[in-house]
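User: Some background: our group keeps a shared notebook of sequences we're curious about, and every so often someone picks one and asks for a predicted structure to add to the entry. Today it's my turn. The entry only has the sequence so far, pasted here. Could you supply the structure so I can complete it?
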Amino acid sequence: MNPVSGTRRKSAILEYVKRAFALHKDYQAEFYRTTSVGDACRAAREFVGKNFDIVVAIGGDGTVNEVAEGLINSSVKLGIIPVGSGNGLARHLSIPMSYQRAVDAIFEGNCQYIDAGMINGKVFFCTAGVGFDAVVGNKFNSAPSRGLKTYMEFCAKEYMKYTPEEYEIHLLGNSFRQKAFLITFANSSQWGNNAVIAPDANISDGMMDVVIWREAPKVTVPLLTMELFLRTIKYSEFIDTYRCRELTIIREHEGLIQFDGESMMMGRELNLSVIHKAVQVVVPAEWNPIPQFMEMMPQHLKEMFPQQLKDMVPQQLKDMVPQQIRDIVPKLKDMVK
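Assistant: Of course. Here's the predicted structure to add to the notebook entry:
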C-alpha cells in the first residue's frame, strides 16, 4: 500500500481490507506499506519468491506500475484497489472506484492478461508520454495536494507558457518529423479520471496506440478537453493515432517523460516495444443480466427460452444496460419471492 497516493484516508481503507481478508478463511494475507520509490516493485518480487497467489496494489497508477513490474512473466496475479488521483488502469479494466467493491472483485473476479509497454528499459501499463502531459505530471507529483482539481490547475498554468516540440518519428516502416503538443503511448485508453486519449486502445492485443496531439490554436483547448471526456478525441483534426509494436522517437534534446503519471528525465532517443501478456490482473467478473432475469421468471416462461439465450454472456449488454437498471434487479428478485 502507498500511504501518500490519492486523497482518501488510508487507515480506514486498510482496516476494511484487513476485515475483508479475515472473513475469507481460505486466504492468508500479508500487508506491506511502501516507504520510497521502487519499494513496491521490490516487495512484489519478494512476494513472487514466497509463492503468493495474488499481490494487491493499494494506491494509484504509480503504485500499480511498480507492483505490476515486479510480477512480469510470473504466475502471481495482480489485484488493484484504486485509491489514487487518476486511477487510469483501474478505470480501463472496469475495476470499481469504491474500495469496498474493489475488494469484492479480488475475491469474486476473473483473471485477464494485460500487456506492458517498455521505453528504454522502463515499463508502463497504462500510458507513457512526452510533451505537455509529462511537464504537468512533473509539477503535479511534487504538489502538496492531489486530485483532479489540482491537476487541472497545473494544466491551466502550464498551457499558457508551454512551447510544442518537434519530434523525429520512426514507426511502421516510415519516418517523419512532427511538431507536437504531446505524444502519448497508450497501452490502455485513458490517462485517468476518465480523460480518454485513445478510445480504441486494447490492453491485451500486443499492440500500442500512439497518439500524436499536433500543435493547435489555443482557442481549441476547451473543445479538445471536452472531447477527452466524451471519448471522441480521435475524431479531432489535431489528433493522429497509429498502432504498432515498436517505434523510435528522437527529440531535440533530453527531457521529461511520464510513465503511468510519474515523470522522469530521459534521453533524446526513445525506443518503445510491447511485452505481450506481461501480467495477469484480477478484474470484476462479467456482469450478465440474463441469468438474473431468468431466475425471476415463472418456470413455464423459462422453458420458452432456448438454451443458447440462457447461456449468453454478451459484453454488449453490460455496456448498454444503465447502472440504474442493474441496481434494481435485486429489488425485483425480492419482490417476486
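Suggested note for the entry: The chain has a mean pLDDT of 85. The domain at 124-269 is CATH 2.60.200.40 (Tumour Suppressor Smad4).
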